[in-house]
Design a protein that fits this description.
about 350 residues; mainly beta; Methylamine Dehydrogenase, Chain H; four-stranded antiparallel sheet; 4 helices
């Protein structure tokens, strides 16, 4: 633990045992045994205390290593580079082993079976990183801006269209299964892109069938029911980009760029239960917190988007503990310009985890 290590080594008691000296001086210990008794007992007490303090110190530091150690060290991950227009797989040594063109990509998922699902600006693709086979493709048209996608349990694909303000469920063959418009008809009438550029970024379909959205320009996170009615919202202290609903019922929010960059955990009542911002971190590294992956040890891996004149000025990825310590970073500015989304591999080619953490 940092506080313990800064304090230095445990100090032994000095000058023998004070209470024993008092007894001797008062004649309550025979004079012939006085020196021997004092030295033996003092040595015994010092030794026992030293063993106790060392064991306690080792236990504390071991616990800290479990809680605060880097999970990402030696891990593979998938990431999107919004500015360079590509999606990549990065190996344990930090080098790219596979990449594919992905214009303006803002969302990526590792899927079982050796493929990635990701956005491509005005559409979504699933591509095998084994043989580059395109396994799924959706195109929203030349005016579409798509920043969110998700593979659903039924095998269909969720697509969140920012420019139209429409949430869609697409079948494997590309057919539209269902759609929900979040923009009132009166506002959308006669407009091809009523949502514009800033209506939303990341979005997720919840187990309940509701939708959880990050409304970029409005700085608002909102939950909508299956018919598109707003049932919950939270006004964030920054432009918001990515969201998820945690197992404890709270909502995890990522944001920045304008306002206070950070990670916010929000209760159903709209209270910030936990947060980490630049005021908590040395060097103030956060720029625009976009993608994330909640790791099994409780740490949060965040992608730190470095657009808007921030190229090369901070790490691309940071692993941050719940005690607000940075324990791992990825800052290769030659291979990447702006990482916008990240998803971590588990064993082999399987995703580490997905629902509720990414």
């Amino acid at each position: 633990m940092n506080k313990m290590s800064k304090a230095g080594k445990p100090r032994a008691l000095s000058g023998g045992c004070g209470w024993l000296k008092i007894l001797c001086n008062r004649g309550q210990v025979p004079s012939l045994a006085r020196v021997f008794f004092m030295e033996k007992l003092s040595t015994l007490l010092r030794g026992a205390l030293g063993v106790f303090l060392c064991a306690a110190f080792q236990g504390i530091t071991s616990q800290a290593a479990v809680e605060d150690g880097p999970f990402m060290k030696g891990r593979r991950f998938a990431a999107t580079d919004f500015t360079s227009g590509k999606v990549c797989i990065v190996e344990a040594d930090g080098k790219i082993s596979w990449s594919h063109p992905a214009r303006n990509s803002n969302d990526v998922w590792i899927l079982p079976g050796g493929s990635l699902l990701f956005g491509v600006g005005n559409g979504v693709k699933e591509v095998s990183y084994k043989d580059n086979t395109v396994k799924f493709s959706y195109n929203g048209g030349p005016q579409a801006e798509i920043y969110a996608t998700q593979r659903l349990p039924n095998g269909n694909t969720f697509v969140g269209e920012c420019s139209t303000g429409v949430l869609k469920e697409i079948a494997p063959d590309g057919a539209l299964v269902h759609s929900v418009s979040l923009i009132p008809p009166a506002k959308a009438k006669g407009r091809a892109t009523p949502g514009g550029h800033g209506f939303m970024r990341n979005a997720r379909v919840l187990a309940s069938g509701h939708f959880l959205l990050a409304h970029h320009d409005a700085r608002e996170v909102a939950e909508y029911d299956a018919q598109g009615a707003k049932v919950w919202s939270f006004k964030a202290p920054a432009i918001v980009h990515s969201v998820t609903r945690l197992a404890n019922g709270n909502t995890l929010v990522m944001g920045g760029d304008s306002g206070t960059p950070g990670v916010y955990e929000v209760t159903p009542g709209g209270k910030i239960d936990w947060q980490v911002t630049n005021s908590d971190l040395p060097g103030k590294p956060l720029r625009f917190v976009t993608g994330f992956h909640v790791l099994p040890n409780g740490n949060i891996l965040v992608s730190n988007w470095l657009g808007h004149k921030q190229f090369g000025k901070a790490p691309h990825l940071l692993e941050i503990t719940r005690s607000k310590k940075i324990v791992w970073i990825y800052n290769d500015h030659k291979q990447f310009k702006t990482i916008s989304s990240v998803h971590v591999f588990g064993d082999g080619d399987a995703p580490l985890s997905s629902e509720g953490v990414h």
